[in-house]
Amino acid sequence: MSGTLKEHISGWQFFLITVNYSLGTAFFIRPGSMIASTKQDGWMIPLLASVFMLAVLWIWLGMAKVYPNLSIVQLAVEVAGKPIGGFIALLYIWYFIQTSSWVTRNLGDFMKTILMPNTPITAFHIMFLAIACYAAIKGVETIARTSEILTPFVIFVMLTIYVCALKEWDWGKLEPMFQSSFNKLMKDTGPVIGFPYLETVTIMMLAPHVKSRLKTALLLGMTVTTLLLSGIVLITVGVLGASRSSHQVYPLYTIVKELQIAEFIENLESTIVISWTIWIFLKLCIAYYCAVIGICQLFKLKNRTGAAIPLIFLIAGIAITLNDNVIGNIAWDKRYIFQYSCFYGIVLPLLLWMLGKFKKRKRKGPAA
Amino acid sequence: MIKYMLMISGGLLIGLIYLIRTRKPMKEIVVYLVLSLFALVSWWDIFSGHLFNPNRWIGGIITWIGL
Fold this sequence. Notes:
The complex is a heterodimer. Helix content of chain A is 76%, strand content 1%. By secondary structure, chain A is mostly helical. In chain A, α2 crosses α8 (214-240) and α3 (44-66) packs parallel to α13 (326-364). Chain A starts with 10 loop residues before the first helix and ends with a helix. Chain B is an all-alpha fold. Chain B has one domain (2-65). Classes of the chains: A mainly alpha, B mainly alpha.
């Protein structure tokens, strides 16, 4: 139960956490905005973003290598000292809390607009956060094992949908392709780099827990995320068409809703709701755990319960105040997400990495 | 609104009593109290009409920097 107790997860579990965290909400939310901005060329955006991410992953892995046994929060305090490092750590804790609020709000918006319009959005928030809180108290090993059990089901459902949706596939809907200029593609890639790619910096909090193959798990996880994201955009355009998809907030839901297998299996939307709920739950658990563990590490708490319980109400509150509605969220995302995520995903890790290297070299100096 | 605030406060109070009864370290109780206060402030803010929107503040700062 200790906040600083050493728990271990395998490389495979970290790979699953990477995929689940980066795809958790993006798989359902991102395709619509990508198709709206670049139409038939939307599938290229994740591929371009992943090329950019290779450089970012190099920074993250470099940062994790300086002090392999420390998380981002501990590393900040170690290399930048208590006042400045503590402030950086607080910034990261806020980022994890904000990410948890975003994830919670995405779930609430989806449930309220699509499934249960008469239920107060806070009811969904509190229920999910209570379970995430329990998972965070139990620890990263529990979350990793849950992820191991649930991911095959989610992937199976997604692949089934991929295959079944191919029946409605029309090559004509993918034309005209390659119409966007490189500059436009780069500009539209920005928000996708911000969310989901740079947001994944959160899972670097778990890096000290990974027993082996951290680099492979992270790189492979990002590759799978890119392929699945690019694939779903391609399928969405091929099935619904660019024009129709760009007007939908959740185009994947529409595809599944209209899906008909063997003329008698229809209304499969509940399966997609279950899988998305699982994905959101896993992402929320990870972000929540990182927020709790960050607080525990910064204030050197031995027990996670004291930090985890009040976060339920804090995150539920922030989830409500973040945006007025889905449209507000999309507008903010389009304008600010890249710059905001760059700060946490590139600027601060680079700073910590450089400071860590400098401090290590300084320590070695007199002996040499 | 009052009912909702009372419910949240009640829940947090039960947690606080539990922490004190099980003789948890003072540091843990202080962190619990501070986070609970933040939570209550955020809910009070919602009921009083959205005065604090973190995204608007972050957006404002990014625009002010000129990015």
